[in-house]
Design brief:
This protein has 265 residues and is α+β, with helices and mostly antiparallel strands. The chain has one domain (2-255). The chain is 24% helix and 27% strand. It has 4 helices and 12 strands, in the order αβββαββααβββββββ. A hairpin with a 5-residue loop joins β6 (201-203) and β7 (209-214). α3 (137-151) packs across α4 (167-177). The longest helix is centred in the first third of the chain and has 32 residues, at 2-33. It is globular. The termini are far apart.
């Protein structure tokens, strides 16, 4: 009888894992590879502006924007690439903060902080604006803190698609170091739960809660912004109570949209 009960519980657990984690992932894979419009050549894939960010030469105020876009090729079925674009007061261009994996593969550094298109398509994938912060001296100070935090990122010579450290690990690191941004990274930002230097407990990337993570492979998160998330093998599923939505592996957020709140004026 005891063996039967253990077997029943095990089968139920496996069913939940398949239903919550792997079935949505299968749907995402099917949808991704059936999209014939996706480019398979990085040289011809779109990287121009999506028309989301304000024109730097026409806006005097400081701006910080956080973006996510589906990763290139097969990786896009699983997750997104994230980056931060920032413009101090009076600047006529944006600077992008991001990690680029192929730089490490070629013996270079992972972090790239350079002038660039703030809202560019990520090799054909349309970007989603996650956070929009604008203002004066206080936003300039946040930009300076992003530069300072980036200089202390511990994985500038290391990159792994799964479970991290990768581009999402970097943006999550910056978000934790500058919690005033209240960045809510999507559940599809695989690598955001890879905590620096073997950490197990940390603030949520939004700074509004806490998370527990074992090497980015197993853990959980509870926060005001993100809601409740469970991480299994780097895949995240969860529920956000306000605005109400569920997050599923591969598919991402399903439900009421989140406004990229402008936090400073």
């Amino acid at each position: 009888m005891r063996f039967y009960n253990v077997l029943k519980l095990t089968l139920r657990a496996l069913f939940l894992l398949v239903f919550i984690f792997f079935l949505p992932l299968g749907c995402s894979l099917s949808s991704h590879f059936s999209n014939s419009e996706r480019s398979n050549d990085w040289r011809t894939a779109r990287q121009d502006s999506a028309g989301i960010a304000p024109n730097a030469s026409e806006v005097n105020e400081a701006v910080i924007q956080v973006y996510a876009a589906r990763a290139f090729r097969w990786r896009g079925a699983l997750g997104v690439h994230t980056w931060i674009a920032a413009k101090p007061q009076g600047a006529d261009h944006y600077t992008r903060f991001e990690v680029i994996g192929f730089s490490v593969a070629r013996g270079g550094q992972a972090i790239r902080i350079a002038q660039g298109t703030p809202d560019g398509y990520w090799y054909g994938s349309y970007p989603t604006l996650l956070r929009d912060v604008r203002g004066g001296d206080e936003v300039d100070a946040l930009i300076e803190r992003l530069h300072e935090a980036s200089s202390h990122y511990p994985y500038n010579d290391e990159y792994r698609i799964w479970p991290g450290p990768n581009s999402n690990t970097y943006i999550a690191y910056l978000a934790r170091e500058v919690p005033e941004l209240r960045v809510m990274l999507p559940s599809t930002a695989i690598g955001k739960d890879y905590l620096p230097e073997g950490g197990v407990i940390a603030k949520a990337p939004s700074g509004t809660g806490f998370q527990v993570s074992l090497a980015g492979l197993l853990g959980g998160l509870v926060a005001v912004e993100e809601g409740v998330e469970v991480n299994f093998l780097g895949l995240n599923a969860g529920i956000d109570f306000w605005p109400l939505a569920v997050s599923l592996p591969g598919l991402g957020r399903l439900g009421m949209p989140v406004e990229p709140n402008v936090l400073a004026r």
